[in-house]
Amino acid sequence: MILLLLQLQFCLSIAAAACIQKEREALLQFKNSFYKDPSHRLASWNNGTDCCNWKGVGCNQITGHVTIIDLRLDIDQVGFRIAPLYSNNSIHSSFLELKYLNYLDLSGNDFNYTQIPNFLGSMVELTYLNLSRTFFSNKISPHLGNLTKLETLDISFNLLETNGDVEWIPHLSSLKFLSLRGMDFSNTSSLMQVLNYLPLLVSLRLNYCNLQNIHFSSSSWLNYSSFLSRIQLLDLSSNKLNGQIPKAFQNMTSLKYLDLSNNQFNSIFEGGISTFIKNNFGLKVLDLSFNINLGGDVFGSRYGNQSTGCNLQVLNLGYTSFKTKIPDWLGKFKNMKSLDLEDSQIYGPIPASLGNLSSLEYLDLSRNALTGTIPTAFGRLLNLRKLYLQENGLMEVGHECFAQLEKLEELDISRNLLKGILTEFHFANLYQLHILSIGYNELLQLDMKSNWNPPFQLQVFDASSCIGCVRSEFPQWLQTQKRLVELWLSNTSLSISCIPTWFQPQNLTDLDLSHNKMAGPFFTTIVNQMPNLRRLFLNDNLINDSLLSPLCQLKNLDTLDLSNNWLSGIVQGCLLTSNLFALDLSSNNFSGTFPYSHGNDLSRIEVLYLRNNNFEGSMPIILKKSKFLETLDLKGNKFSGNIPTWIGDKLERLKILILRSNLFNGTIPSSICNLTDLQILDLAHNQFDGIVPSKLSNFNVMTRKDTDGFPAICRNGNLDHGVVCIDGGKYMVQSIKSSYFNYSMIRLTLMVSIDLSNNSLVGFIPSEITKLKRLIGLNLSHNNIIGIVPAEIGEMESLESLDLSFNQLSGPIPLSLSKLNSLGTLKLSHNNFSGNIPREGHLSTFNEASSFDNNSYLCGDPLPIKCVIENSSELPFNKIDNQDQDEDKWEKWLLYISIIVGFIVGFWGAVGSLILKKSWRYAYFKYGEEAYFKVHATIWRSIEMLKGMCISKRIW
Length: 956
Ligand SMILES: *[C@@H]1O[C@H](CO)[C@@H](O)[C@H](O)[C@H]1NC(C)=O
Ligand SMILES: *[C@@H]1O[C@H](CO)[C@@H](O)[C@H](O)[C@H]1NC(C)=O
Ligand SMILES: *[C@@H]1O[C@H](CO)[C@@H](O)[C@H](O)[C@H]1NC(C)=O
Ligand SMILES: *[C@@H]1O[C@H](CO)[C@@H](O)[C@H](O)[C@H]1NC(C)=O
Prior knowledge:
This protein is an alpha/beta fold. 13% of the residues lie in helices and 20% in strands. The chain crosses the membrane at residues 893-916.
């Protein structure tokens, strides 16, 4: 035995042949072609050591030739790349030395928009080649077609072009797995023909390829029967396929995985899902989600009884428009692990048959119109780990419905109409539970004994707006919860005057106690007991701490909302750190100047609300470095002095600038027109003099047709518990309600307004202003503006409110005003306008004399003064149809609701704008990789490549 072992060891030491000198040299040159290796991933690549032992290198045991290079860089959970290797050149030609290489994975590293080198085509031993996400660009090398041994090719998510040349693909005769995600094939209608030539292909990923129906025209399908019968994995998600899902998909006899999500399909072939599943017996994964108009008899319920899709494990139908009930037969899928019907407009009761899905681990029925009871049968889903039922109309919790779910980790039943009492019994066996969200069920109650010792350790507990869940006291049982990370108890009538000393969750990062009746000082306790807070919401309480300085000890604090409390005194500089990302101190009684000293630095702040306090002094100079600032609201203070020019020069992301009701003076610097993203400019009620800045057409958002909506700032919750958005529009709803602007709710996302009223501005109205086609509100009233109203004012087609009253404007009222069909408020009174009031078009709807009075030379309806000569010339004008009005009513309702809800409950828009656009949500929530491509690429690389396809919002 011992002999044998010795012999074996001997053999092994011989077998591990050292690497070949030439190949080591080649690898070293390759290493040197990277100018940056931030995480030292090539640290082991040293001359003088055996290259077969280097990290990421593998050799043939016998010959010693390098056969494997694996420098794959995975992305983390939220989609960030962690420290790629950076090369400013393409793959180094020294690679030619590695003649025996058969496995090459460089994915995730950065080759600075260079080309895939032609010589790669001569490395004919390659069986595996992965260059996905490597920032290769330009035309793809047709020499790749020489790699006839290649079994796996992944060149996804680069900036590669085909220019219609796909002839090299059929040469890859060994290919089994092909991934071309993110390549634009819109001009390559022959793509499927080409792929049909690959005799061994079983897995094909073509998402984000700009595929349209033309790629799959029904006549050509018949020719692909071998392709269709062979393919096992087909991913066509995120393309532009529309209409009916092609019948041909019914014939895919080997199919195991089909992803058609995020297209524009609106109906399914006859027989629907049930027939499909029956025909494709081997199917394990079916994803039709994010076809937001997909409806009709999608389930094929008429055929449902025969369905026997025993192998189906994942059925993803979220973000669609099914508008049906959940069919009973869904309960037949004994192997189903994941069922997702989120936001699919399903309604009615939840069938008890779902309780038969004994393998189910993930069930998401959230954001629908489900009613009735949460079935008791759910108690049989013993493998369930995640259950999402939030945002429905569910009214009751069936007895025992969760009690036995020992594996349940996440439970969200928030935002329903649940009533009744949850007791210890309901939670008795939930040992694994770590997210519990029951908020916004106003009639729900939790009834726990004060000494309840729950079987779980929660990380997230959300009982916002569930008064019966908290009963105005800090829940005793939280004492046992040592792992809490997020605690949301907003609007629960908490009326405490101190945080219990036993509550010391060391991991807590998010604490929301807003909209309660908390009175007294809290800061010191919070800081001592929860030192790791990142986000703290104490707004809308009765808190009266006299010093903010204790909060300075929260080293990780990035979001702080103390608005609407009884706080006073000065703001200590130590609070203003570069960690801070959102700060809201509005509606308190703070005074003094906004501190600035060496070491202060708000370089990362995005949202700053100081409105309605007693701050004084000049524009906070600390903001000079805040180049990410999007919202600055100083309304209702005593700030004074000029608007410094750096506002326009340095704060280039600014979207909302509100300086209303302060003591600012001087001229409005023209640099303010550099703020191309500005959506709201409110400088009213100050003491500005000088002229209205003229380069107004720089305000891009105001001139553009499309806008991104509110500057919402979103970041993932710690535990993927959704996304928290701090809505830059938080106060806009309020100010609209109270103002005379009658903005329609629909327009809120786009709202752009300029209000310079109640100052001492002089000079003319700059004619450039008429280029602001997106401007909804313009108020220049109560100034000393002279001259005429630009005749082209009718070009400002979005204008809903125009107030030029109390100035010294003269000349006629421009006829073009009659084109402004959206105009609801028009105030031209107290000026020197002359002539008769045009009564054409939309202008004829203004019948209040007050719109026009006190203009000595103005005459005609609706003024009592008759004109001497009636001028009846008619001006032709175009009716401007509001086409998009009907199109997305659903979304607009959601917008409306989310704003109202967010506003009423004061929950900082956690719903926010993410609910608005399903297509955005896709980017946020679907799979890490796509999200990575669509969203995060913006962050770590320049924006150009994503222009037009990406969201300007940022996730941190
Ligand atoms: C590696 O070392 C050898 C001698 O041991 C030397 O000839 C060669 O130039 C070195 N290569 C590099 C890239 O430093
Ligand atoms: C990337 O390539 C461009 C030329 O395309 C070059 O100007 C730039 O310096 C390169 N970047 C780096 C970091 O080498
Ligand atoms: C690929 O094959 C073609 C034709 O056989 C040949 O002309 C070309 O040089 C080859 N490319 C490489 C990189 O070896
Ligand atoms: C499915 O395949 C069969 C033969 O294999 C053929 O007769 C039938 O027309 C095909 N159906 C569709 C919808 O392509």
